[in-house]
Amino acid sequence: MSARLRPSLSPIRTPTRDEAALAAIAEHVERTGIKPGERLPPERELAEQLQVSRSTVREALKRWEGLGIIEMRKGSGTYLKVPVSTASIHRPLTIDRTSDVATLLHTLEVRRALEGEAAAICARRATEEQIAEIGRRLDIMEAHHTKYGDAPEQDWEFHQSIFRATENPIFGQILATMRDAFHRFWENPLDMPDFAGRTFPYHRVMYDAIVRRDPDGARDAALTIIDMVDEDIRDADRRRTR
Fold first, then answer.
1. Residue 100 vs residues 1, 67, 116, 234, 237: alpha-carbon distances, Å
2. DSSP letters for 83-97
3. E strands, the chain, in order
4. Which residues of 8-37 are buried (b: 16+ CB within 10 A; e: fewer)?
């Protein structure tokens, strides 16, 4: 073998059984047109069709769950969360939680870039039906916030409707992975009363910019929201560490 070739060659690796199972399941999803939010066939059925053990299928699905591709609901089944095809490439997102506030601020920097651009694209690209759905989600969020003083889940659904309207699924996938990694820490990292409450009026400002097809206005409103959250976290952390 030529020494010049040796550094660029790697041994051929045979896929493990769970990797082969995931490839087959991805092909099934693509062929049958299963969409995000819909349920996958039961583990028993998958194991029978693939002619592997249920434990192999379970371990394979757990890998997908860890990547945020599916949700395994006890007693209900396994649900697809993001589009999957045989051409899909899935990679994990690793977030270090040993320095919570610093790490959260790092994710806000990423959110700033993503959410600002998503709002601008939405203002250019959203259909009238999608804009109506964004408005409906906003009304729900505002009503919940007025009644309870907080609306983390409703806020998330509002932003999700904007991500969907971009027609670019990568926006939602990246931000959902970041959010899932933090769970409640993402919603209210420092146990602040009415966390990010002062940002709520700017959601309406962003929506109004989307309605009038103003990408710059939508982006500015999204960035204002992120900047306010950043300020609130820094202020709360300073008070906590005095």
1. 51, 21, 24, 12, 11
2. ---TT----------
3. 70-73, 77-80
4. eeeeeeeeebbeebbebbbebbeeeebebe
Evaluate if residue 24 carries a pLDDT over 70: yes
Tokens coding 178: 């970041």
Give the model confidence (pLDDT) of 215-226 as tens digits. Answer: 999 999 999 999
Element (H, E) at 226: helix 215-241
Please check whether residue 26 is in contact with residue 90, taking contact to mean a CB–CB distance below 8 angstroms.
no
How many C-alpha atoms does 207 have within 13 Å on its Cβ side?
A: 23
Q: Which two tokens stand for residue 80?
A: 């697809």
Tokens of 70: 């599916």
Residues near 174 by beta carbon (within 8 Å), at least 6 away in sequence = 93, 110, 114
Residues 188-216, mean pLDDT to the nearest whole number: 84
The span from the first CA to the last CA of the chain, in angstroms, equals 65
DSSP characters for 104-173?
HHHHHHHHHHHHHHHHHHHHHH--HHHHHHHHHHHHHHHHHHHHHS--HHHHHHHHHHHHHHTT-HHHHH
The answer for residues whose C-beta is within 8 angstroms of residue 143's C-beta and 6 or more apart is none
User: Residue 201 and residue 159: Cα distance in Å, rounded?
Assistant: 14
**What's the pLDDT at 96?**
61
| 71 beta partners | 79
Query: Please, which residues bridge with residue 70 across strands?
Result: 80
Q: How many CA atoms lie within 13 A of 74 on its CB side?
A: 0
